[in-house]
Design a protein that fits this description.
single chain, about 240 residues, alpha+beta, four-stranded antiparallel β-sheet, 10 strands, globular
Length: about 240
């Protein structure tokens, strides 16, 4: 397997394409390094590039009343950023913020739209991914409304672990509060509870998952539901 093919295999959407379609798409893409905290697009802005993360992951954030913000999704090596182009909409619906630094494939939006027209396999795969994305957004909305902060925090940590492919990552209580849409004090209480149960360790912004199975038990059912949908539709 060539070096571009090995790199593409780290993104599951690209890896699922027939070899010819994948190579054609990669030849029109560039490999970039995304930095933590980079803003890739704002709501209402024209989408200039699409991204297929390989080692990075991206938070999808919606503004509320122009002040507060809430994370509604994560995009890692299971997906792509810019899926609304599939619907013929060139405006970004959400704020995309790099949560995990690392590599991604980047393609100009116009080039991506041309690729869609010439690759039925790409269309089919991304149509399924669009379904999974919409299902995940609905699940997140219900989760935010009905589930306790501790269970939601456990779910978010598991989602981050899956995309970081690591049990340790950097995060602050302030950023977690921002992601979960709650006050910092609420996140502190929830994280303290998970620490007392020896599920996580947290020190100076460095969080370590000590017991993944236990954290899954502590999470709400939304985590398993989204994984099940992905496996059913895209695997």
């Amino acid at each position: 397997m060539s070096q571009p093919s090995r790199a593409a295999a780290k993104n599951r959407l690209l890896a699922a394409l027939p070899s010819k379609d994948r190579q054609h798409l990669l030849a029109r893409s560039e490999r970039v390094e995304l930095r933590f905290g980079d803003s890739l697009c704002q709501p209402g802005e024209r989408i200039r590039h699409v991204f297929f993360p390989t080692d990075s992951f991206i938070s999808l954030i919606t503004p509320i009343d122009g002040r507060a913000r809430l994370e509604v999704g994560l995009v890692g090596d299971e997906g792509m950023l810019g899926i609304s182009l599939m619907l013929g909409v060139s405006a970004a619906p959400l704020h995309a913020l790099v949560q995990g630094a690392g590599a991604a494939w980047r393609m100009e939006a116009a080039t991506f739209c041309r690729e869609l027209k010439h690759s039925p396999a790409l269309q089919r795969g991304l149509n399924r991914y669009l379904y999974v994305t919409l299902s995940g957004l609905a699940q997140t909305a219900a989760c935010t409304r009905f589930h306790l902060v501790e269970a939601r925090l456990a779910r978010w940590l598991l989602m981050t672990r899956d995309r970081a492919h690591a049990d340790e990552f950097h995060i602050t209580h302030e950023f977690l509060a921002y992601m979960l849409g709650v006050r910092r004090a609420g996140v502190t209480r929830a994280a303290s509870s998970l620490r007392k149960r020896k599920l996580i360790r947290y020190s100076r912004g460095r969080l370590t998952i000590l017991d993944g199975r236990g954290l899954e038990d502590a999470a709400c059912g939304c985590y398993a539901a989204v994984k099940k949908t992905y496996a059913r539709v895209l695997s």
